[in-house]
Write a structure and sequence with these properties.
five-stranded antiparallel beta sheet, alpha+beta, 3 domains, Alpha-Beta Plaits
Length: about 280
């Protein structure tokens, strides 16, 4: 047999061995993947069961968030276990443990951002901070949008102008959840001549005498700066049910204009806060 033929046979044998290892590795990964998906399903069901026991069942968004993150975590675990299992077939246990220790130390130093993203992803899974479908503001970059997807490493937000924000989970330190507010401000300020201050107060009292169904708490009439000159500024502080601030403010303004006209007051109602 010639040297060239021996090289060809060796190459074919190496290729066959590689294909065998590749197929075997894919089969092992498939098994770990299916096992991981089963574990993620068990985690999700257990979390949902605990929530029902506490009489606080998860919303659809929270359920989808838990399922997505649990699947991402278990997919990563399946990939790591597959690599370790395949290495164990070719490397002695003692050498493998030592190598994994050195590799872990090096990985921890070189891939600290990756590890930070993963741990924050797990934290999002455990803690009910945000859920798919909620409107949030994340981090110092003021990334604002609706949560479309949460993975082990990244959170996807759809911005208010249609843009897509991809935020690494490790960058998530501060979260402003705009979908979980308890009230929305519907404040109004009224500028009246000081000579008509008493009538202006009466008009505001008449506006809040019959409370709007979306108002929560007791409205307050205050002087924000406490100054009295030719004109006085009075503020009507109103807390509306969350998400209804704009509607309540419009209704109050209409009613206030009617009350001012009925009393022939030259007041100037103004919107104090445009947020909903």
């Amino acid at each position: 047999m010639s040297l060239r033929q021996e090289q060809i046979d060796a190459a074919i044998l190496a290729l066959e061995n590689f294909l065998v290892v590749l197929i075997f590795g894919l089969a092992v990964f498939a098994l770990f993947f299916l096992a991981g998906r089963l574990v993620s399903w068990v985690i999700w069901r257990f979390a949902a069961y605990r929530a029902r026991l506490r009489l606080q069942p998860y919303t659809g968004q929270r359920t989808e968030t838990i399922r997505t993150l649990a699947s991402s975590v278990m997919d990563g675990v399946a990939a790591i276990l597959t690599v370790v299992f395949l290495l164990s077939l070719f490397v002695e246990p003692g050498v493998l443990v030592a190598s994994l220790g050195l590799f872990s130390a090096g990985l921890g130093f070189a891939a600290k951002n990756f590890i930070s993203d993963v741990f924050m992803g797990i934290s999002l899974l455990v803690n009910d901070r945000i859920a798919i479908g909620e409107k949030v503001e994340i981090g110092e970059r003021q990334s604002i949008g609706y949560v479309e997807r949460i993975t082990l490493m990244e959170t996807y937000l759809r911005g208010q102008n249609g843009e897509l924000w991809i935020v690494p989970n490790g960058d998530i330190r501060t979260i402003r959840n705009l979908s979980r507010g308890t009230f929305s401000p519907a404040h109004i300020k009224l500028v009246v001549p000081t000579t008509e201050l008493a009538q202006g107060m009466e008009a505001l009292q008449a506006v809040i005498s019959d409370l709007h169904p979306d108002i929560v708490g007791e409205p307050e009439i205050i002087s924000e700066d406490g100054l009295v000159g030719q004109e006085t500024v009075i503020m009507l502080k109103v807390q509306a049910r969350y998400g209804t601030g704009a509607k309540v403010r419009r209704d109050l303004l209409k009613q206030l204009h009617k009350e001012l006209a009925a009393r022939h007051i030259m007041g100037k109602p103004e919107i104090l806060d445009e947020r909903n």
